[in-house]
Amino acid sequence: MYIDLREYLNLFTNNDTAEASIRADKLLSLLRTGAFLQETHYDWLDSIKAEISNSVIETLLKYSESVNINTETEKMISICNAIFCFDELNEHALKLKCKCLIALGNHTLAKNTFAKFALKYNEIYGEDFGETYQSLITH
User: Residue 11 in contact with residue 23, Cβ under 8 Å?
Assistant: First the structure.
């Protein structure tokens, strides 16, 4: 029986010295179906899910630092999408994804991505997102 959570745990509990890019690629492959245990709701599981989420986000953000946004644009978008599975309001992922979409010539999609993010931000926090689209993509 295949269990994606087991594969995730093997990635991070093995003393395997796999290169960061190989580990991140395996992680991205696991996350193609979404976040772990997203349909499972038990109070006792919340802390485990939070720990996994933090680990995934940290790993992917660290890995994103080594990815060349100009030559590996699609990979960077995959990283951002995976981060959004765990943290839909991750500002760093938003910035990277918008820059990637612009690099691919998808300016309207980049603006729409920003607009959806800003709307969700307002829904959750009850205030406007503190950055404009223009300032986000130029910094």
Answer: yes
Is the domain of 66 the same as that of 93?
Answer: no
Percent of the chain with pLDDT over 90: 53
Pair (77, 95) in one structural domain: no
For helices 91-103 and 46-64, the axis angle rounded to 10 degrees is 40
Domain count of the chain? 2
Contacts by 50-55 with C-beta closer than 8 Å and gap 24+? 52/5, 52/8, 53/86, 53/87, 55/12
Check: CB of residue 69 under 8 Å from CB of residue 100.
Answer: yes
* Length of the chain counted residue by residue: 139
- Residue ranges making up the domain that contains 136: 89-139
d(CA 27, CA 18): 12
54 and 101 both lie in a single domain? no
**pLDDT band at residue 14 using 50, 70 and 90 as cut-offs:** low
